[in-house]
Amino acid sequence: MSFTVAIIGRPNVGKSTLFNRLIGRKLAIVHDMPGVTRDRRSAPASLLGLEFEVIDTAGLEVSGPETLEGRMRQQTERALAEADVALFLIDGRAGLTPMDEHFAQLLRRQKTPVILVANKCEGKAGDQGMYESYGLGLGDPIPLSAEHGLGLGDLLAALLPYSKELPYDEDDEFGFTPEPEEIPDIDEGDEVVIPPPPDRPLHVAIVGRPNTGKSTLVNCLLGEDRMLTGPEAGVTRDSITVKYEWRGRPIKIVDTAGIRRRSRVEESLEKLSVADTLNSIRMAEVVVLMLDANMVLDKQDLTIARLVLEEGRALVIAVNKWDAAIDRAESLQRLGDRLQTSLPQVRGIPTVTLSALRNQGVDDLMEAVFEIHSLWNARVPTSRLNRWLDEMITRHPPPLSKQKRRIKLRYMTQVKARPPTFAIFVSKPDELPESYMRYLVNGLRDVFGLDGVPLRIHLRKPKNPYVD
Fold first, then answer.
1. What is the pLDDT of residues 268-287, one digit of tens each?
2. Which CATH code fits 202-376?
3. CATH (residue range 4-162)
């Protein structure tokens, strides 16, 4: 990107709305409640052909550094220091407020150049506030309506002087976009094929209940206070994606909002946060489920784990706060029992104990992430699959159908990876019992070493060539 633009201002002036307008999609949560945005978020933006990086920040508030609002302000100040230019938004309809004047004085002392933007100026409702903003001493304000896309041409003219005309890397996209897979010839050879690591970043989402240490883990990996953390539960609201590199492998880590039980989610804002988290799960390749060492795999944790597996994502369980565990042996025993009884469909889910606050066990977690990602991409040769299927049928033949005829399993192949998905051509697919399907899945895991990843088997009926 040629330059970086930070959007700053007091709460509820439309910063996230402008952020979404510039990046061309609804990435940041927008709500009428002030102070929705807490962490800073960046993404590539395009304004009438001008490419740049834009940063959405939390609303500026006057609070002590020990409070949540004070920590949010520190995040905004870091974004301002990283930016080449700042857009200072005011609400044109509400007019100037003492808070706007206070932060305008602070911005005049900063080295980062500031462009004054009067938002919500559709029609003539914001004219008075725009004229009042001349008194801030930040130059001529730009009338804008982020909601309706008005005034973007004037904003482009104000940003053009800061463009450095650097070449733009079109492959550097924000977020994970599934690419079409090149299906290798899996009939060559006789061993399970695990493709080499791809060049694009591995997409990892960190999920869990509130206050389990998800943002603390991200900060530990990055080696800086990138995410807003604190003793309060539910600090994170947006799903924030950050770039990271571990032992030469590029990663995109998504820090998500905590998911509470559906019966406890009442506010519309929390519903938006949960929806954002669920979308992050669907777009991820590997999902790390964070648990509290003293509350291992309760009902809500199991609900999240089942959701991840149903989406076909690779799952790693991270037991955080291990340094503060009251009874470690009991926690491990409870974890193993709950996995065996409540998630029997995916055997061998990798589990790692760690302390994100003390940076203990984090490397073990990343090793488990890459190992499960390799299995998630594994392919089994068709010839070996069918030899295995013949052995399974010989050892335990399928039951009889309703017409007292043996159900025939004729052929098997792997149709895709991510997760490993197989197709079996069966004479009567509707009558093959679920118990026999579990028998086949367990056999696949035992023989081909596919423990810990979700497996999908589709039953298909072969076409009858004489039907016509």
1. 777 888 888 999 999 999 99
2. 3.40.50.300
3. 3.40.50.300
Where does residue 464 rank: exposed (0-12), middle (13-18), buried (19+ CB within 10 A)? exposed
Between the two ends of the chain, the Cα-to-Cα distance in Å is 61
Q: Of 118-127, 290-299, 328-337, 449-458, give the lowest mean pLDDT range.
A: 118-127
Whole-model pTM: value is: 0.80
Is the pLDDT score of 205 beyond 90? Answer: yes
Binding residues: 9-16, 56-60, 119-122, 208-215, 255-259, 320-323
CATH topology (fold) of 382-460: GMP Synthetase; Chain A, domain 3 (3.30.300)
Q: What is the pLDDT of residue 174?
A: 37
What is residue 84's predicted lDDT score, i.e. its pLDDT?
92
pLDDT of residue 179: 45
Report, in this order, helix, strand and coil percent for the chain, each rounded to 5.
35, 20, 45
* DSSP code string of 141-196: -EE-BTTTTBTHHHHHHHHGGG---PPP-TT--SS--PPPP----TTSSSS-B-PP
Annotated binding site for GTP: 9-16, 56-60, 119-122, 208-215, 255-259, 320-323
